[in-house]
Amino acid sequence: MGNSQRRIPAHAQRHPHRTPRPRKEAAPLRPGIDPRLKKIFERIGIPEPTSFVPDPFQIEALDAVREADCLVTAPTGAGKTWIAEQAIERIFKKGGHAWYASPLKALTNSKMIEFGNRFGVANVGILTGDRKENPDAPIIVGTTEILRNQLYDAMHRGQTLDTDFVVLDEAHYLGDEDRGVVWEETIIYLPQRIPLLLLSATVGNADQIARWMTAIRRRPCRVVEETHRPVPLYPIVQHPSGMLMPLFVSSGTSKKPHLYKKVVDLLNDRRAPSLAPPGQLPPFGAMLAILRKYHLLPAIFFLKSRADCDRALQLCLENRVRNPEQATLLSERLTQLGERFPHIREHRQRWMAERLAVGAHHSGQLPAWKQTLEMLMSEGLLDAIFATSTVAAGVDFPARTVAFLNSDRFNGREFMPLDATELQQMTGRAGRRGKDHIGFVMVVPGKFMDIRQVARLLRAPAADVHSQIRINFSMALNLLLSHSPEEVEALLHHSLAAFQHHGAALGGEQAAHTHLWNDFQRHLRFLQVTGFVDDQDRLTEDGLWAAQLRIDQPLLVAEGLRQDLFPREDPAMLAAIMAGMVNDKETDEHLDRKSVPNPLIKAVKRVVRGLQGFAKHMLTNDFDVRPIFYRPTAAIWRWASGLPWEQTVQAAQMAEGDLAMLALRTADNLRHIVGLRHVFPQMAETAQDAIERILRDPVMPEYATKAPVPVPEIESADT
Fold it and tell me: What H or E segment, with its residue span, contains residue 72?
């Protein structure tokens, strides 16, 4: 039986404190290092504690934001956050307000804790889709979407944003295909008087971005670039025999590194051995033993799928925690965290974390379990985490070594080759400032590993950031709250897309602007035909409240509210319908319709039939419409009705993390309905009740909820 087929024995699954016996590897790896690595490995160790001294680039950036915008590009771990903290402190001491925006809720939550410790809990607030605490505090941390929405509201009221300084962390998200539009809108709408600090490790065209910002904000934007990595990164290769060797070497008079000859020989050898048979995972337990022997732990292994991350744990049975202090601390911390997150006490992978010091971190896991692993890794209690590439984006738990088994990644739709930015985000986890003299990136040969490509990317500069701006109905409605179409056209001239096309080809800038303007007019015409905008290009009464629906499908939800299609007095059913409208993953493939309760089928059919004409009108005009499936609606209906989590997951046939994310996104949509209390008071009250029913442990363990109602008997469908 191959490695990927090994499983934790059934008796160990039932009794997590019993020890399963590891199976012998068919061909055990032989530890060893190439002679060229000996001097490199002598540098491994923990630096002596020293007092902090700011680097020149940090001082330069801090000086720059006194009188200008500033874009800082520096490697992960170089100390970009220190610049933001110092600048915020300067504003705070003067009695001013500051806004710190990040792309991820997890990163925002961690900054909330950091800033609370530094500036005092009473002086820091947080605004995300899930949390709204101390919103009038002088220092706000939140997601960039919330900041953009506040700018919409300020423009509508004819006021300026109540802050004196804005930080946009992870600024390379400006080029993100799905969310880059939010970053671009934020920069365009932010009042000129408010200084802006952008932080990123990976912006190849920083000078171009700064010129664009200078042009549209009419204040200078300075670029502060730091290329020196505080903890040097050294690439190595694990030969299928187990031998570790350098990826690059320099020889002769040439200082330019090139692929090591032994690596080239491995790539050219068609009969070279393999770490694992095709379709199976390598012997991770043996690999961890080698990394431990040469003091290369802790490590992060980036794998291609969530299933591989979970299977990898089953190959680490020989990685028993032998250090008594580590074992005691792991047990104590997991017990402490179990008090904070009750659901993780019986988590199916707790045994592996506690006894093997390994964990699987991916989007299929519960938020509380991912947070637990992040804490354990940050505290140095885990030897390894097996993760998908999404862990690299902004999550702060560096390791001494990161290992790659694939040179491509799944982007949610298909596998695509890694680019320089993605690889640099991942390698940024290697080498911990203050804990390592040197960090390592280990390339593992295999079917889906193009070592030559990875070698090119490791030496490549950061990729350029390109505009991802596009018109959508939420943007159109919110711009029309405070702008005439002519003023919107002028705003679109400020887009990064128009700036980047300037001079690219004859009329390139005008072509980019014309495309955006034509698309805005297309949205405007549809809003007029459907009664959200009048013939004077002003929002109607319906348009005014619909603009507050800053969600993915605002018009379909607005039309459902106009037609009174949604359940007004049934919070569980309302949550279910909203889940169907936010879902973009789950389908009804292999769904047994008999498992779907009749009341839910009737409610969904009522919404689908009521929206059918409107949806057809949208499709005829080339606007996207998502279908409503029963699987996600039934899953959230059961959860909102009070069914226990394990039974909900089993019935839904969904990964825990996917179901939790669906619940969080559903709650976010429901919040926007709550915000329409002045128009739909009964619906808003029901939406609030629905939120409290679905945001309970383990979706959000620390959220105060109402006690769930008893689960109604499920009436099966006849067909």
Answer: strand 69-73
Torsion angle, alpha carbons of 635, 636, 638, 644, to 10? 90
Give the residue among 488, 438, 464 at the shortest CA–CA distance from 155: 488
The DSSP line for 500-568 is: HHTTTSTTHHHHHHHHHHHHHHHHHHHHHHTTSB-TTS-B-HHHHHHTT--SSSHHHHHHHHHTT-S-S
The distance of Cα 272 from the centroid of its chain, to the nearest Å, equals 38
Q: How far is residue 465's CA from residue 677's CA, in Å, rounded to a whole number?
A: 40
Examine the pLDDT at 22 and tell me if it is beyond 50. Answer: no
Enclosing H/E stretch for 209: helix 206-217
Query: 38: buried, middle or exposed (CB in 10 Å: 19+, 13-18, 0-12)?
Result: exposed
Q: Are residues 354 and 426 in the same domain?
A: yes
Over 80: is that where the pLDDT of 20 sits? no
User: pLDDT category, 25, cuts 50, 70, 90?
Assistant: very low
Q: CA-to-CA distance for 205 and 227, rounded, in angstroms?
A: 14
Is residue 95 located within the same domain as residue 198? yes
Same domain membership, residue 204 and residue 305: no
SS (H, E, C) 466-495: CCCCCCCHHHHHHHHHHCCHHHHHHHHCCC
Q: Are 77 and 229 in contact (CB under 8 A)?
A: yes
pLDDT greater than 60 at residue 366: yes
**CA contacts within 13 A on the Cβ side of 355:** 19
The range of the structural domain enclosing residue 288 comes to 3-17+231-459
Scan for tokens 């190959």, then name that residue: 315
SS3 state at 367: helix
Q: Which residues contact 581 (CB under 8 A, 6 or more apart)?
A: 553, 556, 557, 626, 628, 669
Domain with residue 64: its CATH number is 3.40.50.300
pLDDT of 54 > 50? The answer is: yes
Strand ranges in 277-407 using DSSP code E only, listed in sequence order: 299-302, 358-361, 384-387, 401-404
Tell me how far apart the alpha carbons of residues 449 and 445 are, in angstroms, rounded to a whole number: 6
- Average pLDDT for 121-134: 92
Report the alpha-carbon distance of residue 641 to residue 619 in Å, rounded.
34
Supply 415's token pair. Answer: 């596998």
List Cβ<8 Å contacts ≥24 apart for 485-489.
Answer: 485/520, 485/521, 485/524, 485/537, 488/520, 489/517, 489/520
Sheet of strand 233-238: strand arrangement: 32-33, 243-246, 233-238, 439-443, 401-404, 299-302, 384-387, 358-361
- Evaluated on CA atoms 192, 196, 198, 204, the torsion sign reads positive
Q: Are 109 and 126 in contact (CB under 8 A)?
A: yes
Tokens 């956050």 -> residue: 81
Tokens encoding 683: 């619906």
* pLDDT score of 705 more than 80: no
Query: Which whole-number Å values give the CA distances from 607 to 242, 390, 601, in the listed order?
Result: 59, 35, 10
User: Is 572 found in the same domain as 672?
Assistant: yes
In terms of domains, do 258 and 395 share one? Answer: yes
For residue 248, the SS3 value is strand
Q: Does 108 map to a domain?
A: yes
